């Protein structure tokens, strides 16, 4: 992965805003060592070595870590060490003015969807749905390069291998993340405004009946009426037996919609190649030309 060395001297700030790293520390530390070998500096936040019940630290400790990373002039990109299920606990005590006044890219996915959507919604700063450090042990080296290239604007968002679920073209602001988290945020001020947006989503450990439930939540909340396109990522452990296929569910719920829907395995849990998605950037889906380019 020699191409990563062109970012030599950049500095990654590592935050742990959700669960503790116990059980994943070997993988995460190997990733940090590999990143350091490219000449990229790594600054690890104090919650990395903390454990407070299921989470890395108390709510206050995790928020303090995040805010200090945004304030740190040496840090170029903030990356999450791991996901979990506690990130929503901190959303209402973050000082978003600190983030807005000291903008920098922040990368994460899964439970970190809470954080990247809240920051984008409240501050307007572009955030990035990309791999947590715990994920890189299963990813190709180009996934790391793609994080940097996407953040620094040197690559276009381009899925070369996607399935067209529904033909069409549409453009709008890219928003999304983990399907469960998207629905969980909907009644709150941290949820995006979905009007004319391109919605992307992925999910893990959910049977198809649960996926159907989650998609109906999007339908009942009106999100599916507002968006101008949809990108479906990897659906991990999507169930067996007599459960309805996810494609049938999507087509039924959007049968009166004219916007395009595509499916790719280029983002989500346990994928081989993870393309980082810029939340808040405008993109276009054009199924006729088989392209999903990033718009300026």
What's the layout of helices and strands?
Layout: E1 11-15, H1 25-37, E2 41-44, H2 59-71, E3 77-80, H3 96-101, E4 106-108, H4 113-123, E5 127-129, H5 141-151, E6 163-166, E7 169-178, H6 179-185, E8 198-203, H7 208-221, H8 223-226, E9 229-235, H9 246-253, E10 261-263, E11 277-279, E12 282-286
Parallel strand pairs: 1-2, 1-3, 3-4, 4-5, 7-8, 8-9, 9-10
Antiparallel strand pairs: 5-11, 6-10, 7-12
Helix pairs in contact: 7-9
What does this structure look like?
- By secondary structure, the protein is α/β, with parallel strands linked by helices.
- It has two domains: 2-151, Rossmann fold (3-Layer(aba) Sandwich), CATH 3.40.50.10740; 163-286, LD-carboxypeptidase A C-terminal domain-like (Glucose Oxidase, domain 1, 3-Layer(bba) Sandwich).
- It contains nine helices and twelve strands.
- It has helices at 25-37, 59-71, 96-101, 113-123, 141-151, 179-185, 208-221, 223-226, 246-253, and strands spanning 11-15, 41-44, 77-80, 106-108, 127-129, 163-166, 169-178, 198-203, 229-235, 261-263, 277-279, 282-286.
- It has a six-stranded mixed sheet, with helices on both faces.
- α7 packs parallel to α9.
- The relative contact order is 0.14.
């Amino acid at each position: 992965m020699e191409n990563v060395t062109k970012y030599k001297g950049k500095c990654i700030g590592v935050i742990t805003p959700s669960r503790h790293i116990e059980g994943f520390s070997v993988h995460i530390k190997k990733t940090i060592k590999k990143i350091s070998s490219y000449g990229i500096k790594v600054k690890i936040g104090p919650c990395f070595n903390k454990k407070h019940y299921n989470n890395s630290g108390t709510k206050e400790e995790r928020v303090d870590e995040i805010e200090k990373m945004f304030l740190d002039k040496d840090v170029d990109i903030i990356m999450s060490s791991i996901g979990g299920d506690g990130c929503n606990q901190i959303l209402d005590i973050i000082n978003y003015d600190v983030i807005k006044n000291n903008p920098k890219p922040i990368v994460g996915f899964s439970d970190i969807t809470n954080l990247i959507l809240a920051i984008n919604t409240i501050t307007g700063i572009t955030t990035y749905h990309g791999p947590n450090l715990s994920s890189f042990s299963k990813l190709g080296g180009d996934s790391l390069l793609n994080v940097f290239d996407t953040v620094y604007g040197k690559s276009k968002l381009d899925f070369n291998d996607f399935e067209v679920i529904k033909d069409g073209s549409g453009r709008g602001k890219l928003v999304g993340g983990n399907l469960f988290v998207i629905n969980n945020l909907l009644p709150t001020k941290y949820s995006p405004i979905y009007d004319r947006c391109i919605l992307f989503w992925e999910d893990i450990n959910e049977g198809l009946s649960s996926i159907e439930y989650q998609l109906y939540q999007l339908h009942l909340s009106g999100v599916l009426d507002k968006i101008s396109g949809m990108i479906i990522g990897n659906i991990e452990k999507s169930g067996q037996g007599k459960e309805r296929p996810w494609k049938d569910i999507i087509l039924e719920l959007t049968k009166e919609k004219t916007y395009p829907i595509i499916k790719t395995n280029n983002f989500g849990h346990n994928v081989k190649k993870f393309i980082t998605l810029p939340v808040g950037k405008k993109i276009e889906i054009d199924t006729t030309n088989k392209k999903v380019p990033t718009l300026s």
